[in-house]
Amino acid sequence: MLSRLNLVARHVPRPLGPRPVPALSTPSLIPCPGLSTMTSAHAKPIHTAACLIIGDEVLGGKTIDTNSPFLAKFCFSLGIQLKRVEVIPDDEEDIIEAVRRMSARYDFVVTSGGIGPTHDDITYQSIAKAFGLKLKLHQKAFERMKLLSRPHPMQPNFDWETPSPGLTAKLRMVELPYDETIPLEQQAVFVAEDMWVPISVANGNVHILPGVPRLFERLLEHLKPHLIPRLTDPEGKGTFRFLISTPLPESAVAPFLTELAAKAEPLGVKVGSYPRWGKKRNTVTLVGANKAFMESLIPEVEAGVQGTLVAHEDELDPASDSEHVYSQ
């Protein structure tokens, strides 16, 4: 998919640097409507999320997935529980099954990949079939594509008004799943003024994003302000993680952590233990939204694991730590 990801990227201006679009003197000439519809009475609160990575090249080892780790950090910062990440091939049946299941089980579903101009970019059409929808040319997305995309140097004579195989390929990227019962602005939203790529939304909660990492990340970041009103914590404080570095092996701290988890997890705080192979110190974590409660637990945890609160888990590592391996 690297080749077709690059095809998509060619049609989207970079966040920085000049954009050779003579018809526009400033991106503000293309209004970017707010996503008020996404925070309307019809929008459900967001508690949980799932990520679907679509691409043969990821499963084949040709491309490394960086989008799901980015989404994981994104969700963590907002206090959204990312419950599942799956990687599937560019296969219609797999896509249909996965998006139906995820849409039914999770509040916020993000897909990545398979929305380029080539024959194997089948995400839009597969998701449309999953929910009994048709594909429809999104005229506004097409107009934005014409104004904001950069001409390819190998297509000097390309004409937006003349039917051609090249134009047909480009149109594949703006033919989106369409539900006649829902206002159009709720089905394809533009979150950045200088990007023509919309976030297509199917079945109310499936957000279809490109697989190109820089586009995926930028679209997601611009979506953040419009998700915050739908969060459990509308102030967007997110989730907190405290790290306690301990010199003890996991087997030594296990009894204490079992008791701690029984007390903390009913209050929404997860207790974790992570061995650090080849290091002298391991890490115990407290994760949750109740910052004050977790802070109150710190002295108890430090005493229970003979550890120290740290900002980074390698903070107390000695320089020679990599030479030693300890059993857990």
Automatic annotation (TrEMBL):
Residues 50-230 form the MoaB/Mog domain. The lineage of its organism: Eukaryota, Fungi, Dikarya, Ascomycota, Pezizomycotina. GO terms for molecular function: FAD diphosphatase activity. GO terms for biological process: flavin-containing compound metabolic process. It comes from the Eukaryota. This is MoaB/Mog domain-containing protein. Coiled coil: none annotated. InterPro entries: MoaB/Mog-like_dom_sf, MoaB/Mog_dom. It comes from Penicillium alfredii.
